[in-house]
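Go through this fold for my students:
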Amino acid sequence: QINVLQAKKKFEILDAMLSFMHAQYTFFQQGYSLLHELDPYMKKLATELDQLVIDSAVEKREMEHKHALIQQRTLLQDFSYDDSKVEFNVDAPNGVVMEGYLFKRASNAFKTWNRRWFSIQNSQLVYQKKLK
């Protein structure tokens, strides 16, 4: 009686295992069919993504180029005088007068640099706190 019962258990376990395998097969078969329908959309999306990567790289290169040009332009402006900041007046009654902004180092503990208005009058460098 016990041998018959144990033999019956083996067939029930095998039957349960087989039904589990069929369920798995059906699950993956349905997943494949659903994703197979999306295959053209995924391919189209992949090509658009490739184009976006290329466009992004081109835009990044252009921005880096513009940034380099702006830095170069600001460096050139820093080393040359600006007509709006510096005036030359050869007809001044006391000789040649130049005036404009210069950077002056502060005398406080932090020693920061500040932009201040200076002029040359009577061959002397003059610092004016307020522009008159």
Summary: The first helix runs from residue 2 to 37. Confidence is low (pLDDT under 50) at residues 81-86. Helices lie at 2-37, 39-79. Residues 1-82 form one domain.
